[in-house]
Specification:
Elements: H1 3-34, H2 40-62, H3 70-98
């Protein structure tokens, strides 16, 4: 192996470790948000947003999708739209189930 390829591998390992560290920090942030005194819909949206960011980081770097063709980006966009629909349904259902209760 040449020195150039070893340096490239060291650079890639540094990127992977940085992304791994970011994922660990985001898990901690999501855990912290789950223990904050926030309304449930806000908490759900924040945690799902963090989960989306984690999914983007994982797929882009660990699955090497950051160098793929446009069809992959279309599929990822479709997935994000599906996630947004699921969040909307969750919040709508939560609002519907608590609307009739009197506190």
């Amino acid at each position: 192996m040449s020195d150039h390829s070893i340096q490239d591998m060291q650079k890639q390992v540094k990127v992977y470790l940085t992304i791994f560290g970011m994922l660990i920090v985001l898990v901690g942030v999501a855990f912290g948000i789950s223990h904050l005194d926030l309304r449930t819909p806000v908490r759900i949206c924040l945690i799902l947003g963090i989960a989306l960011l984690q999914a983007i980081l994982s797929t882009a770097y660990f699955m090497h999708l950051n160098a793929e063709k446009k069809i992959v980006y279309f599929v990822l966009l479709l997935t994000a739209v599906f996630l947004a629909v699921m969040v909307f349904i969750t919040l709508w259902t939560f609002h519907d189930s608590t609307a009739g209760h009197v506190s």
